[in-house]
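Table S2 (continued). Query chain:
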Amino acid sequence: LALKQHPKFAKNNSKSPEDFQVIFQGLKPQTFPTILFFPFYTLRIGFPMLISVIAQPSPIANTVIQVLTSIGVLIFIAKTKPFLKKINFYQLMTFEVIVLIMNTSMLAITVLSHLDKENYRVANLLGDIVIIGNDCINVLALFFLVIKLHLEIKLIQEYTRKNLVTGSQKIGLWVQLLF
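Corresponding output:
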């Protein structure tokens, strides 16, 4: 329950605070693109696996579809900007750019494997890009979590100072960091 929705807080204070959530602040107001965003992005997570199974006999078609999917997702997110907080937008865009670079590298590796020439050095370099991209995605999650925690702690401190929040209301604000 967000603090602004808590009945006890609503009685004691006419101003509603912002929700203090680190992991997910929410989407912009209900417009058609933001309504579509969550199911679209949920499908985007499973779609590459489905394509990998269906297009298994044709690795080039598989990787081309993966690259096109990454480009489509980047365009959709860039145009709709579905998040209330910019930090969530930056995190998702950074993640998707890294995925696009990895998918493009996989496409290049797949094309190289179908050529008669031996391009081991280039294939190794592209393979390293995929591995480094995967590592970057893992570090990225932690990096943005630390940034979000820092921003939310500053926001909570500022709000409690300005609105003289005390007692259980203050505890409620800090508990929001857990969710």
